[in-house]
Amino acid sequence: MDPPNLPLLLLLTLASTIDAQDLFPKPYCNSTDNLTADSTYQNTLTTLLSSISTTNSCGSAIEIRRVCPDKKGAVLFRENCTIQYSSTSIFRTVKTDPDYALFYFQDFTSPETYNAALQTLLGRLRGEAAGGGSLRKYATGNTSVGFNTIYAMTQCTLDLTNQQCIDCLMTVIGRLGQCCAGKMGVRIMAPSCQFQYETNNRFFDLVVEPLPPPPAPVADALPPPPGTFALV
Ligand SMILES: *[C@@H]1O[C@H](CO)[C@@H](O)[C@H](O)[C@H]1NC(C)=O
Ligand SMILES: *[C@@H]1O[C@H](CO)[C@@H](O)[C@H](O)[C@H]1NC(C)=O
Ligand SMILES: *[C@@H]1O[C@H](CO)[C@@H](O)[C@H](O)[C@H]1NC(C)=O
Ligand SMILES: *[C@@H]1O[C@H](CO)[C@@H](O)[C@H](O)[C@H]1NC(C)=O
């Protein structure tokens, strides 16, 4: 079977944060896309992944070859980045599957009020991330609900256009209703975009790091550089 299209649901009862390290890395091997043993694809892929330099908080790109040794396509969700490769072109393509959904077990006590504030915040941050240009499609913000504060983050891969980023985030944010409406904190990651929110926990840094250099162009059917999800 393909990696599931349905969000993988994890109930986080003990974790103090959605970024709990034992939830990552989360691999999805594309089982419809087999690699033959003698394939030059395999060698090229290994060489390519070895050559990709990643930040320390992302980890090595080649690790995914050990997890999905015989697949032409795979996605590896890490805490601070997402790595994907495919035999078909994924550049400038909105990929919302597979996805990985994490959420707190606790429900918010006044779901209607909470959801209204949350949707407004996510809608604003969706536009901000999409409008971020080709160097930073990332936005964070907060909003108050009674005595509580919701902190949220939205992010797209840098290869997406403004509209593609909006489409991607609309799709993954729309999945809230299927997995985890009204939860105190949720993170849904997809290959092309992700969002996260938490209640009374500013999970992102306020200090904005310098913009990274623009990604180097890569061969057509190869993935965009990893690290595009690295949280600043
Ligand atoms: C898996 O690979 C097939 C063949 O390349 C592709 O059509 C499909 O979209 C891939 N599945 C995912 C979830 O990327
Ligand atoms: C790929 O390999 C899996 C498991 O080895 C097998 O079940 C599947 O039929 C293969 N798919 C193709 C398209 O050959
Ligand atoms: C991810 O980034 C956060 C914030 O910078 C950091 O605390 C955490 O250790 C990083 N995770 C990994 C696996 O490096
Ligand atoms: C909430 O966001 C505003 C900007 O909209 C920012 O000025 C403020 O510092 C943030 N508050 C907290 C507690 O992070």
From TrEMBL:
Residue span(s) of domain Gnk2-homologous: 96-202
Keyword Cell membrane: no
A family per Pfam: Stress-antifung
Residues spanning the signal sequence: 1-20
Xref: InterPro entries: GNK2, GNK2_sf
Taxonomic superkingdom: Eukaryota
Keywords: Repeat, Signal
The keyword Cytoplasm appears for this protein: no
PANTHER family found in the cross-reference section: CYSTEINE-RICH RECEPTOR-LIKE PROTEIN KINASE 9-RELATED, CYSTEINE-RICH REPEAT SECRETORY PROTEIN
Protein name: Gnk2-homologous domain-containing protein
Native species: Eucalyptus grandis
Lineage: Eukaryota, Viridiplantae, Streptophyta, Embryophyta, Tracheophyta
